[in-house]
Amino acid sequence: MLGCVRIATVRQMAEVITKDESDGRSYVRRAMNKLAELGLAETNGKDGRHPIWNLTPAGQKALADGNELPPRPKAGTGAKAVRAGFGPHGVAVTDMILAYGGRKHLTDWQVEVNHAIKETGLSFNTDAVLTLPTKTSEVRLFELDNGTMSQARLAKEVWDYERYAGHRVWEGARGTIGNTFPFWQRHRYTRSQTFPRLHVVLAGKEEHLLDNRLQALADDVKGIAVAVWVNTLPRLQRGEPWYEIGVDDPHRRRGRYPEPVGR
Questions:
Q1: Are 96 and 142 in contact (CB under 8 A)?
Q2: SS3 annotation, the chain
Q3: C-beta neighbour count of 175 within 10 angstroms
Q4: Contact at 8 Å (CB) between 128 and 98?
Q5: Buried b vs exposed e over 35-68: b needs ≥16 C-beta within 10 Å?
Q6: From its phi and psi, is residue 6 left (phi > 0), alpha (psi between -120 and 50) or beta?
Q7: In Å, how far are 76, 91, 126, 196, 253 from 67, measured between CA atoms?
Q8: CA 15 to chain centre
Q9: CA–CA gap between residue 98 and residue 77 (Å, rounded)
Q10: 20-48 pLDDT, tens per residue?
Q11: Which residues contact 210 (CB under 8 A, 6 or more apart)?
Q12: Does position 115 have pLDDT exceeding 60, yes or no?
């Protein structure tokens, strides 16, 4: 689990490895202390009173050597994020993954996945990406707001996905007419027919405040040309439906962003 989500509490790990309606926290706590003695896991901070666990580099190497996960050479352990104060956010991301059914397909998740376009300077990290192909897309994208950023910044982060989806690249031999193609489809999600849906999850505040934040976000991204679904973490944990606040529209995106100049 820690190889996928990077950081988690004993409660979260027990939720994954124990049977429904069972409390396996004591078992997990003993197991993690044993891994710590072996130098394979460690704690670097707390979420409230609960220690946050992560693998050490040695633990991550042992996991890779066992071929338990697909190769992820650039993945960190999560220790730096916890020490920098981002532990509660990471724990909330793990809660989001578990609430979305992560227990069933945990190894299909990656966290802190960078999306960048060098030519435009656009670069941002997606909190979590689920590789669970549909008929039109190979992944699903997830952003979690733990109530720590301004409403304007949250809206900008969502609009960054449209900017990423709207960027096109020119392809063709020198001296030919050539054509332009979406950057993401040529260089990132090559098996997707549509730009992956973005799921935004709101957490970190009382539920009525999260509902207000949800409505404000819907207003701030009105007219966005990528598919965006939003929910609050409490609603997601209860299995309640998502709210659609953005619709994928590649034709409208193409009209909003300039075409690249051919060679």
A1: yes
A2: CHHHHCEECHHHHHHHHCCCCCCCHHHHHHHHHHHHHCCCEEEEEEECCEEEEEECHHHHHHHHHCCCCCCCCCCCCCHHHHHHHHHHHHHHHHHHHHHCCCCCCHHHEEEEEEEEECCCCEEEEEEEEECCCCCCCCCEEEEEECCCCCHHHHHHHHHHHHHHHHCEEEECCCCCCCEEEEHHHHHCCCCCCCCCCEEEEECCCCHHHHHHHHHHHHHHCCCCCCCEEEEEHHHHHCCCCCEEEECCCHHHHHHHCCCCCCC
A3: 8
A4: no
A5: beeeebbbbbbebeeebbbbbbeebbebbbeeee
A6: left
A7: 17, 25, 25, 28, 41
A8: 20
A9: 19
A10: 666 788 999 999 999 999 999 999 999 98
A11: 147, 202, 203, 232, 233, 234
A12: yes
Name the token pair of 231: 């929910």
Residue of 153, 156, 178, 182 lying closest to 256 (CA atoms) = 182
- CB crowding 196-226: b at 16 or more within 10 Å, else e: bbbbbbbbbbeeeebeebbeebbebbeebbb
> What residue type is assigned to position 52 of the chain?
I
Mean of the per-residue pLDDT values of the chain: 91
* pTM attached to this predicted model: 0.92
Q: What is the identity of the amino acid at 111?
A: V
Convert the pLDDT of each residue in 156-168 to its tens digit. Answer: 999 999 999 999 9
Q: How many Å apart are CA 124 and CA 195, to the nearest integer?
A: 16
Beta bridge partners of 141: 129, 198
Contacts 24+ apart (CB under 8 A), 147-152: 147/202, 147/203, 147/204, 147/205, 147/209, 147/210, 147/213, 148/89, 148/204, 151/213, 151/216, 151/217, 151/220, 152/220
